[in-house]
Design a protein that fits this description.
Largest sheet: 5 strands, antiparallel
Radius of gyration: 24 Å
Strand content: 35-45%
Mean pLDDT: 85
Order of helices and strands: HEEEEEEEEEE
Number of helices: 1
Number of domains: 2
Structural class: mainly beta
Helix content: under 10%
Low-confidence stretches: none
Oligomer: single chain
């Protein structure tokens, strides 16, 4: 019984390190001090991100001995010119969505809408001006 009192549990640790992704997509692999594969990727609620191979990412290590790891994010890209506190810009290599404090949304890239669209509370109906059969 006295031995059980002498044994100490290993306290959980938390550590972070920068790593380089070696495997992109849903089964992310990262090299920090060695390569680790099949790491989960975490991001803010509602935001889905798949790291690109060769990108620098933040790896958070936890649990006893730091064996539980996850990819938490990457270094931010340069903010758009004139970006103010409280604004959000989601960027990819092909475009961006920029949400401004005044309520405007700037979209860059090919924009595709699926579903219904309302403008000022009214269903959007594109103008058929100049097409055959229109008045």
């Amino acid at each position: 019984m006295w031995i059980s009192r002498q044994m100490k549990t290993v306290p959980p640790t938390a550590d972070a390190d920068l790593g380089v992704t070696t495997i992109a997509g849903g089964s992310t692999g990262v090299v920090t001090r060695g390569e680790v594969r099949s790491l989960p990727v975490y991001g803010p609620g509602g935001y889905i991100w798949m790291p690109e191979s060769g990108g620098t990412v933040l790896v958070i290590k936890g649990g006893p001995g730091g064996e539980e790891q996850c990819v938490a994010g990457t270094r931010q890209q340069t903010a758009p010119e004139g970006m103010q506190p409280g604004e959000v810009c989601i960027q990819s290599s092909g475009g961006s969505v920029f949400l401004k404090r005044d309520g405007t949304i700037h979209l860059r890239g090919d924009v595709r809408l699926e579903g219904s669209l309302t403008v000022n509370g009214q269903p959007y109906k594109p103008c058929q001006c100049g097409e055959e059969g229109s008045e």
